[in-house]
């Protein structure tokens, strides 16, 4: 059957069909298409390049004078385009590195230089204001101990060590970046009794094992380091000292010792040049299968004989940060908001992360303002939000959401995040399931600048390589699988705290200089997007998304797809835990029945929206949240999606249920199942309420 289906797709003639835009009807559909065609002619790659050049001129970490200059530049650009723009300040707890060192003390002594290499042709590598090797929120301290290699530092890696009879208690562990958020690595090391953590970038993961390294290619050279925060964002993001409420100047703050989100053991990143000298001085057993990295020797676990001394001292202060908020006001429903966001702070220059996204945001604002001069105007308000202190822990966006929570819950339609906008040429998106179809329609309207095919066609071909070789265009029935949102960027507070439907979009590619001084304008110009065509293309994608969401006759949300997705998650739980569930009295029959009912009403809602245009179906997303958050991490309110406690960035679906089961906490699992039944019942009732006058029910 599968072979026949594939052959059917290959010989099926591709028939051009009329453009479908969910959310628009009648003459408004034609008008929207006309406006979009006009919009697509406006964005200019050269403007994106010009903005990126300015934004990456200096290292600009959050709370620095250079960071303030970047915020003021963004504000001035918005105003020059005629947008209402303002800077919104918060006062948050940010450490800066002051005295950081690491040395090998056995079997011989070496004090390592914590400075990335310089390159004559790249002026940015010479700046004296670049932070040293730094994992933000590492506690101060000096520790000395033998070293144990722990692979990626995942919980299962420590379990493997226990099976081998190797303890890390009282030791300094060295882990490679990847597979989990660096803060999770610190948490797991702490839980297993380590007194310090070293994290390094292995050439297997983003160095020469991937391809040519800088300056011959885009991958990480031996001396480059990945800075980054180890803040426990899986507990809560935002300012550590004001959990759940905004960090205004006069806000009441908890003591740092009370902050669940602050790590407890000294942690620092190093380059693989330094890691090589530590790892090649480890003895003990050879590493298990899958633990060997890319350095040119057999890896051993230790402990010792390599012994390391680390010292970390930071300057801990309440520092001022600056969000920039600009708006294009809607003419019909001005209180309703479509929000486009990205951060502007960077660990160093941040050409890719985040300023490819910031340059896209600024050019999108210009393009829409130019379109307004031609007569276009949105029904709903569009907000452009440039967040500060994302790198430390999603701080600027979280504080703003906490401060504006009531208004957002009432009026926000959707949040679109574009952070690492361009690190390559391959389109990627993550979203809530209700917006999958919206994204598909969106990227069918924009063309890849190199191939001339739609972005949709290129993305579909990448996901279906086995059947797409002989197909020039995807069939009309083609679908794309999008990711689901965990954490790691500024959509987190919008979705996980406030229940606002969210999207994250980017172009991806070989990007080996993440969070190093080489993530700069030179790298972007020479190894990634030299003509800034993909920046321009992202402007087109985001601009049309904003136009559609702000101007549609009815909101293009698909909750049938959401129900199908949840049903799949339940099936996965039953598959994973099997007979164990029955033995503990855990049953999903009620949830499955409610999912079926949700599908029926969601399908009715889908059909009725075309007739009754004022239904605000975006609020159904809020029903997946509860004021009482997830067990042991109350800040996270969403019961379908959250960052996994031991993943950090990665998505945990049905987190209350899944995490309780994974921890063998069956009483909590039963409570979470009951709570989710109530959530589904609330969604059914809300859908019924939306449909009542339309179904003739009084």
From TrEMBL:
Instruction: Give every PA domain span.
Output: 143-227
Q: Which CDD domains match?
A: M28_PSMA_like, PA_GCPII_like
Give all residue intervals belonging to the Transferrin receptor-like dimerisation domain. 587-683
Originating species? Candidatus Kryptonium thompsonii
Similarity field: Belongs to the peptidase M28 family. M28B subfamily.
Q: What is this protein called?
A: N-acetylated-alpha-linked acidic dipeptidase
| Gene3D superfamilies on file | 3.50.30.30, Transferrin receptor-like, dimerisation domain (1.20.930.40), Zn peptidases (3.40.630.10)
Which residues belong to the signal peptide in this entry?
none
Pfam families for this protein:
PA (PF02225), Peptidase_M28 (PF04389), TFR_dimer (PF04253)
- Which segments constitute the Peptidase M28 domain? 323-521
Matching entries from InterPro entries are given as: PA_dom_sf, PA_domain, Peptidase_M28, Peptidase_M28B, TFR-like_dimer_dom, TFR-like_dimer_dom_sf
Instruction: Spell out the SUPFAM superfamilies in the cross-references.
Output: PA domain (SSF52025), Transferrin receptor-like dimerisation domain (SSF47672), Zn-dependent exopeptidases (SSF53187)
